[in-house]
Write a structure and sequence with these properties.
Strands 7-6-17-11-12-14-8 form a seven-stranded mixed β-sheet. The protein is built from five helices and 20 strands. The chain has 259 residues and is mainly β.
């Protein structure tokens, strides 16, 4: 099952299970007890939106062995993360917008996203799997030159928290065998990242457990598992495609106007 949120061509919003031909609508709470609505919307009659509306994205840094080695860093003993606000989230096809007054580099990062399904607070790694609703694709966008603009304080949240800088989608896939999957990122069709998720330093269940001891995680929140080698910049008008087998492809274009 691939869960999705959508907007119909008539402007009606909803959620349901996506297949090749249509989306089967559900009612209620996607993260509670969703009920079949008894209707479907055909492909071409709707647009996919972000598959969830998180209160926050918890974004990991230095969580892949290959990138750790390239950067000459030690493996973290606890997840190293920043917070991207829920206001930065967009879905498939929606444009990434350059921040007003910012003319510098904008970077992409293709990642696996963990979607939380139940309230998480101080849970164990053993119980963490039962709190994971599923997985989605993430493009963790960054205004690179803002990050170190102030020599006294690295501005992780500001550089990554602009409106439209949290791309999620196209769907949420429960039960994904992430150990067998790869993240492939293409820029205007040219492959820039291709890395195995099995190279992750701190795996999803442990991430959920550890972070739940630092803060409460709410249904719909997303943990972006970090990226590996191949991060680069996006030129205006370029399309970024993040693909993970079992989830699909998330495509966003860096649009012409400010957010």
């Amino acid at each position: 099952m691939r869960w999705a949120r959508f907007r119909s061509n008539e402007g009606r919003t909803g959620f349901g299970v996506l297949d090749d031909a249509h989306i089967t609508e559900y009612e209620g709470d996607m993260f509670g007890t969703p009920r079949p609505a008894g209707r479907a919307v055909a492909r071409g009659a709707f647009t996919l939106e972000s598959p969830c509306r998180p209160s926050k994205i918890v974004a990991l840094w230095n969580n892949f062995h290959a990138l750790k080695s390239k950067l000459g860093k030690s493996a973290p003993t606890h997840p190293l993360f920043l917070i991207k606000p829920g206001t930065c989230v967009i879905g498939p096809v929606e444009p990434i917008r350059r921040p007003s007054g910012y003319a510098g580099k904008i970077a992409y990062e293709g990642e696996l996203g963990i979607v939380i399904g139940k309230l998480c607070k101080n849970i164990s790694p053993h119980d963490a799997g039962g709190h994971i609703f599923g997985y989605t694709c993430v493009n963790d966008v960054t205004a690179s030159e803002v990050l170190n603009e102030n020599v006294d304080f690295a501005q992780w949240c500001r550089s990554k928290g602009y409106d439209t800088f949290g791309c999620l989608g196209p769907v949420i896939t429960p039960g994904l065998d992430w150990r067998q999957a790869r993240v492939i990122t293409r820029l205007d069709g040219v492959e820039r990242q291709n890395y195995p998720l099995s190279d992750m330093i701190i795996p999803p269940e442990e991430l959920v457990s550890r972070i739940s001891h630092d803060m409460s995680l709410l249904p719909g929140d997303v943990i972006a598992c970090g990226t590996s080698v191949g991060v680069g910049s996006i030129k205006d008008g370029c399309a970024v495609e993040v693909t993970i087998d079992g989830i699909g492809s998330l495509v966003n274009v860096l649009g012409p106007g400010p957010s």
